[in-house]
Queue: 2 jobs
Job 1
Amino acid sequence: MSELTTVPKAIGGPSNWLDERLGGGNFLKRNMRKIFPDHWSFLLGEIALYSFIILLLTGTFLTFWFQPSMEHVIYNGSYAPLQGVGMSAAYASSLEISFDVRGGLLIRQMHHWAALLFVAGMMAHMLRVFFTGAYRKPREINWIIGILLLTLALAEGLTGYSLPDDLLSGAGLRITEGVAISLPLVGTYITFFLFGGEYPGTDIIARFYSLHILLIPGILLALISAHMVLMWVQKHTQMAGKGRTNQNVVGAPFYPAFMAKAGAYFLFTLGVVAGLATFAQINPIWIYGPYTPADISAGSQPDWYMGFLEGSLRIMPAWEINMFGTAHAGTLPLSVIIPALVPLGIVMTGLALYPFLERWITGDNREHHIAERPRNNPHRTSIGMAGIAFYGVLWLLGANDEISAFFHINLNWTTYAGRVLVFAAPVLAYIITYRICLGLQRSDAEVLSHGVESGVIKRLPHGEFIEVHTPPADDIEAHMRGKQPVPMLPVAEDPSGIPPKGMRGPIGKLRARMSKAYGGEKIPLESGHGHEEDEHAAIGPGEDHTASR
Amino acid sequence: MTDNEHEIEQPDDRVPKRVIGTPPPGTSMLGEAEARDAGVTGGETPGITLQDEQKARRAEKLVALCFLITFLAGIAFLVSYVVFQVGDPDATGTSNLALGSSLTVAVLAMAVGIVVWVRQIMPKYALVQERHEMVSGEDAREVVADTFVEGANESGFVKGKMMRRTLLLAAAPLGLIPLILLRDLDNTKMKATNFNKLLRHTVWGEKTEDGRPLRLVVEGTGQPIRAADFNSPGGILSIVPEGYEHDMNVLAKATLILIKFRPEELKSGVNKNWTHDGIVAYSKICTHVGCPAALYEQTTHHILCPCHQSTFDAADGAKVIFGPAARPLPQLPITVDNEGYLVAAGDFPVPVGPSYWERGDAEAEARAKGGQA
Amino acid sequence: MVRITAWRRHPLARYAVLILALALVGTAYATFVQVSRPADAALASGKADDVARGKSLFQAHCASCHGLNAQGTSTGPTLIGVGAAAVDFQMSTGRMPAADPGAQVPRKPLPSWVDSNSISDIAAYVQSLGGGPTVPSGEQVDPALGDAAKGGELFRANCIQCHNWAGAGGALTRGKYAPNLNESSPTQIYEAMVTGPQAMPVFNDTTITPEEKRNMIAYIVQVREQRDPGGFGLGRIGPVTEGLVAWIVGILALVLAAIWITAKKRQKS
């Protein structure tokens, strides 16, 4: 086949028609060859994006049969062990999708697996962005959008989980109600408005249905679009390396290479979701049975992304306050409110504020387009690991009954252990991570100054054996030299001993102290002369005054 | 930016040949991941590097094979849809396996094909694009600021104080409308301040149409229970109120667990006046967040809630001995009617289920009234 | 310091650390787990008519805990009035004779002297002491004669809070647990309901009729034998294993795919 010399008519004609009406040519001229840097971790967010697309498609399929109604019906479908049993229309129609629609079970399972991967992909992506500092200026807005997306995804998951109205999802709904009603002052109002009266009522499935298929996905779609547009406009961050600077982006063009890669990755995501739906059964609602508030099963669990809330409810001691005694007001069920709101609050607020806190502490007002290696900002990495440990302990404790049953560990001990670990594990994780980061930095510095062990042993004339060290490859060296010291506030006192403006009050002093601890170069790459590519290494503590107040 | 080769190759003049049995240069110190990260443009020529013609032709065959597999698997999906019917778990399982595996193979083969295409046929790109600061230029900002001020003045919004204030005034009720429209989300047709009063009562306080107290019936069979039949110590039953076996709202509050004790096992926490012959009825709804707490151990008399592991001592008034629940499961007064069936002797003295703001210390209130909570 | 650094760089150091960590985890796990030892070797079996043979077997194997006349001791409860069903359940599941007084006596393989004859002998002896529930007939527990859908409703009302919706079992307080029902024969399920072994409560025949019990058995057997139509059942314990699979299989597979897509072959110069 010969190569093309002009645009074929089949494409040129319609394009011309469109361009005359939309003028898209200018946009395409600038963007068809937009450069995207390549790194495997840059694709983690795409897992979430593609899962979302799969969720929209499979979800639409499910709506064709699902009946969001709590009307009492007698089941007479194909699944024998439930024939003649009374249940809600929602549950009966979910059974119909599973057993009476060809491909229905496959699509239902794909929808559920895609939902798990959607949140998992978001979280993995968020951790990548956090640990590489990719949320720094100018990307704080996109970071906040990401936090909103994660929160909405949890809500979307919760509403979807409740729809089939099986015994497991009903337990989740009951806990949701128990948490909502515990809120001070407004608890009963919220519950009655949400459920249309007393729990469970006959409205909640229909209401969750409209939230789940219309409102929340609508907002998700809008925010995801904004997320993508911002990424497009601001251009993706890249890893440090040879020829890469804060002022350029090196990689493959959107058309054709990145486009094909993204398409392939969508297909991979779809393939993994389809494969899981084929070979791993998820949410077998027919085994759970129809919901009734009178029954519960051992091992009732939420989907994984709600596990940390479940865990925090489980390890909480029994605290409840009646502020006004027997008066009909003032009951504060702290053993519900605290675990339901505090961990979620700490994690989400902490994440949302982190870019701004870091900027306040470091006084760093520059734009950053080079992704930092986690080791090169040890305090951030340690804080992140402490957060993971905190989340992880709660998550693990959300499954403590299964852990207890499977490993034959005393159930009560798991709770006691959880109560200690939820405080101890983050501290330990912080300390250990910090040490590891410094160790890795030291090893980088050593590689740069002494080279790499070559594995070659030489015998010197006087009989001594040495191992030959060889300098690292150019690209590796360039990657390592991408390290920059963590910026610090100018804390130096002037000759008369007065600290700079804004550092004088107690908050200012704290800020200065934190800046000193957080920022700076702990392990210099090498002492002495700089390196030609190391243009930023000269920016030491105290040289960036732009943000000081 | 990554490198799938674990070995870091270096120019021959720099690295002596490796000695067998020693780690390859670079790997031990740098680790694989780093080596990949670092793979950047190290051995790569910047710009566009074309693929080797011959290799590309070989790769094209591979890609074509992948796409052919996708085609065949797609056909297999269509055939499976027609051939395999659904119904019982066996048939559905076969259909799911056939449809799912053909879809998986089709999609993955195409994905692999495209990746091979990108990696071995398309050129290797290491193109560079300049970045520009996000901030717009000083002059642009000035123009915008000027335009804004000019427009604000032209519109008369600045001068028209009255207009400005009435516009704000007009916006306030408009903002409230969406909120107020949600008021009828609740279908009880009652004053919102009375919601919490509903939570204080269950149907156990009611009578049947002919004025009898409600009987306790077995959940799942609907049979009333003769006290004389429920005679094995260590026995437990899940109980619902007569006539409300399928009323979800009633079940959410009124479901009971009925436990038979040996008389000597009962401790002071149990109100013995509300028991009958060692039979005690507790609310099944956990006082933490409302799961049915019903894991009963007859040896220890523990009632465990499976959701958050609150543990209650059934022999001692269901007081909390572990976990996040703060209050005992309320005890229901029971007795027998003249036919010997267990009936409720009244409603729970305190609200059942999870705590809420307006609940107050209902236990203390009940005690003050002379009862036992 | 220098020596430590040198040691840390030793090629075997990482393996040493790994093994040390594994050993620590293993030890920690072992201390948490209740150890169960296999039963002592069996003794010879007795002869005579049922009750008499049962009595001599009882005195040889059971009396040390339950007392010479089954009146109970500090280590074992009285067996007067528990009935033949209790003996058949405890012995046919291997729980009795118990090997270890832990929080709960586990199901285990039968010692060699325990077979259907020796069980029925001891059962006859215990039944003779003070009556109690008897071993159900084959017809009473035949799953084919039960109504699974009706049994399912009772099963969900009374059993799954401990044994899980699919009979997979679950945790109870202080080291106790509800065992999974997959290995239990219909007879054993029936006996467990009427006798209430260990922590399990009693469901006597006057409140849950034998017919209703047979319905429950029909449901349990039907569901446990039924194929998982959606693929591997993942233990049928719900979202915990599903979440694990999503991360370990799903995310891992996609990360590997991402690494492959973005990998670059180095060009040799």
Job 2
Amino acid sequence: MNGTHQFGCTSAPKGNVGIVHFIRNETDMNWLLNSGPHAPYAALLNKSDFNRATVQKLLDSGKVNGIMVLNNTDQILPDSFSPDDSCPNQGHGLYAKDPAYQSCSKVQWNQNADGLMMMDLSIPIFIINDASDTKMLIETCYEGHNQPHADGSARDYPLCAVELKDRMDGAKDSETCIRRTRHQLNLEPQGYCDPLGDYNVYGTVKALNNTESRPDKSVIIAAARLDSFSLFDGLSPGADSAIAGIITLLAAAEAIGKVKETIQAAQLSHDIMFTFFNGEAFDYIGSDRLVYDMTNMDFPKPSTKPYLSQIHLNHISHFVEVSQVAHRDAGKLWLHTDPLTKDKPEVKAQLEHLVSLFLEANSSLVARVNNSNPLPPASVQSFLKAILNQTNLIFPAVVLADHETVYTNKYYNSWLDLRSGINLNYTGDSTTWYDEDTQVATDLTEAADMVAKVLFKLAMNGTLNETTVSANKTTVKHLLYCFLVQANCTILKDIFDEDFAKNLPYSTYPTYVSVATSFNDFTNVVQQLLISFLGEVRYNATKETCRDNDQTVYKYVWMQGHEDHNGTRNESFCMRAAVNVSDAASKAFDIHDYDYKSGQYSTWTESRWAGNAMSIRLFLKPSKAFETMVLIIGLVILLLSLLLSYFVNKRVGVLFPHVPTDRPHVSYQAVEESSLNESTQL
Amino acid sequence: MDLKRVKNDEKLNLCRKYYLGGFALLPFLWFVNSVWFFQEAFFKPQYEEQRQIRTYVIRSIIGSIIWIGVIVTWVTIFQLKRADWGATADYMSMVIPKGEA
């Protein structure tokens, strides 16, 4: 839900029951829409057919009350699928109210989008991942009982039906469900929904503490976004939408980490803050919050102990954002700039300089987009929006992306934004994938290398040659494997302590930001990687002394280190870095009497659901006539047995000759009379 | 309490208490009064206090009917309009149904 609407799937409280109908082609579809006599149906779709047009057709027919999507690996992917808006986050960001650029009037970035996520579907949609479930549905259920005869006539009852249940507790909009959750008169409080949110990850190179002064315009922000989403819970791979950018920025951070002493030693150097924003797919939750915190002198949080020197909007000198970077558009990555600020005299020269640094670093890889085009959806929009009218605060900003105009990513924010979509196809045996060289790894390394060189030059004001800075392709290969194949991988096992490493999943992390009540493992993993890339080893610390003693400038973490060929880890160590997390939660839910329709902050919430709210059951459903007959027979038997027992009671003397039938009545009267007598005597 | 065992003046006293109590916005007292003393008021052989009891019972019945009318009307309006009233209706509610606007 957001401030004004509800979206997505729900079912009746006890689930929706429909007759299973498998739609493999146009004929199946038309049969269901035109002739199928046994409505309501539950449609079974191949993954390539699952899009808004199909869903809309099924909904409009009024004959369908549930949808199942088959997720077979052997099926072909649709050419494109994005359930997001064609103009993502259009109500928020820099151009939301700008007459020239609002609603993506210049460029519809996400042209493949069908906006399915932005619909109030109100029927359940399930994805069937398991192969044996799929087989059961198609062969036993559909082909065995439901498939129409060859002449197109429907089969007779009993038919195979499915009950799909995903009842959502929240309704209407965020304002309503949050109000209901907070206003509790009931002794057993019940929640309806929770705000979306998590944490941003940030890390600075220079680690200034709060007693050291931070000059104006001395921090370069290098940013990427942490999250994506999809229609299905737990399936939000975000390969290009988020992961490619994260890996590129992490690899750049590693390259900068190797030369951090140079930057730290130089008196007039700029600081670099690597920032990973969370909840960006839902109207810039993370970046909007960071801007709010910076504006209110609350970033990083002050403390009585020594803490990291605060960074406010006036401290930002440059902003380099890595957006989607897995593809290439006309063989290049593209530098996007903002037309509203680019010509302000305060930044014009610096922006040109920043762009020229990219072109110098790798002229064959990047090109600048026509500079009258607006920025694509990006975290930096939150910052520029806040400082648009304060010309002294404006800084040069570029967004690096794999598209000149419309997205090259065909599966933006969808469950199909998989590694196959960014052509991360391994050829060897799966045990060798971790180290396998791929074109994607080469491309991302090239991008990371360029970003690192630019950042270094910016930080050092061009006083040193950047040739010593280079991104490590091995890291990129490993991260691709860990984020897009399985998280249980060597590099992640090495940088965590035993407890966390032991629980690394054999699947990928979902990138959906989820509700703000928990700390996402994925965010934690990115934070730990950033610590390992920017940090320094504390050789004298043991596992027990490796903690953030009396300060919050540095975060200390224990890493179990690399496993040697004997399977033991002898080189565990303590590492510290000026890395931390900051709230990525919308202020809309903190402000009393916030106007949810104002569009100022993100208002996205997720409905709660009961523990037993999600289920699928398959069963054979007899005809209505049969069901009625069973009910009538039952009633008749009930009546007969009542009659029987009545007569048995009447004629009880036949069975038990010595029991006088009218005794109870007599005794009752006797008692009553005696008590009456008593009362009259009194 | 069994009215059969209560003396007639006690009955009148009781019926009056219930009738008067109903004015303290306690419609259930009227309702109970109308049911409980109905037989006493209309079907028992005549006795001295019966006229008075009958008056109280009739008034209690009228009161109950008015109250039932008021409550049924309110419940109907509230159920139909709860979603439209938004926050106001939520603040009136002890239990808000899940998954409904």
